[in-house]
Amino acid sequence: MSQVLPVVGSWRKSSRCESHNCVEVARRSGEVAVRNSALPEDQVAFSAAVWQDFIAGVRAGEFDLR
After folding, report:
1. Of the candidates 17, 11, 54, which has an alpha carbon nearest to the alpha carbon of residue 34?
2. CA-CA distance, 48 to 32, in Å (whole number)?
3. Where are the domains of the chain?
């Protein structure tokens, strides 16, 4: 089992989330962690560079449904 690093600060979720089942993000040492608020023990993490590329793609519309 891999070790889960502690988060820096706190978990954040969108202000648009109106349920208990939301995506949350948090910073960890050198990476960004993502989890479902309904399943907080299940987390995935990405390097800061990969996360920045993902956010740039979202802003550029790369993942918009057509």
Report:
1. 11
2. 6
3. 7-59
